[in-house]
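Side project, low priority. Logging it here so it doesn't get lost.
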Amino acid sequence: MSRANRQANNLVKRCGDEDRQLLACIERLIGDDPVICLEDVQVKVREGRVRLTGLVETVSWKDRLEGLVSGLEGVRSLENDVRVEKKVRFSDRQLQALIQEKLADGALTHSDIGVDFQEGALTLSGRVDTLQQKMELDSMAGSLPGVERIVNRVRIGYESPPDDQTLKNKILLAISELGHSEVEDLKVRVVRGVVSLKGQVQRQTDKKPLLEKVAGVKGVKEIDDTITFDHQESSREGLLRQIEVALHEDRRLEGSSIRFQLAGGTLFLEGMVPARAYFLVIEEILGRFPEVHRVVNELHIRH
């Protein structure tokens, strides 16, 4: 076999290992989720391209599933072909009544919201004071069984909207109240109620409270979000998840209790294993991760 063929085979083997690790990580995340049922969702991974199929009950469940997977390190693309299908059948009239009840129970009773539901498509109309309230309507509608598509035509506006500079000052004040120190060099620009945010957060999950705070300011009609997150931190978290899956899913390590921390390229291992032979298995598993340059083994043998 030529050197080129050997290199190609090794590349295919490595890609296969990465796909298997990513698949195991995705299935574990879905399996641990309190809402999504793993048995209803099928996952396929090929060269980092992920395809999801299956059935969920609501649009928000489909979005939740996409959020779980899209942030994983190693996911090059995501095709979410999961379908929304209600297990309990309601008529359009029953669902419209259910939506009206949800509105009455929520915090938007003062707002004039129109509802029309036909053949799985929910159309919302009316007016609210803030973008956050419009987003809450989307969330409420997406949680209802049988809603396959949402058309949100609700307008944002109230009497005497602030000028752009006044609105920018209100946004900066709201962000300062949040104490969002994780945001680095945040830049805010406002043009006719459309807010552009640019900066970097340490973790992808840090964006949500920031965006919710800005969306709650009266006068904000739309948010143009170009906030990025620290890819180095993301890569680290993705690597930790892959190592965790590899260690916990290997049947040869049954009966062990392993904890680990990553600092730079050094991995620190703590916990208990039943026998010294487990050290060789762990060494073999960690050898699959070239990002781990050094292992400090502080594991103890259970007597």
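Brief comment: Residues 1-15 have pLDDT under 50 and may be disordered.
Revisit when time allows.
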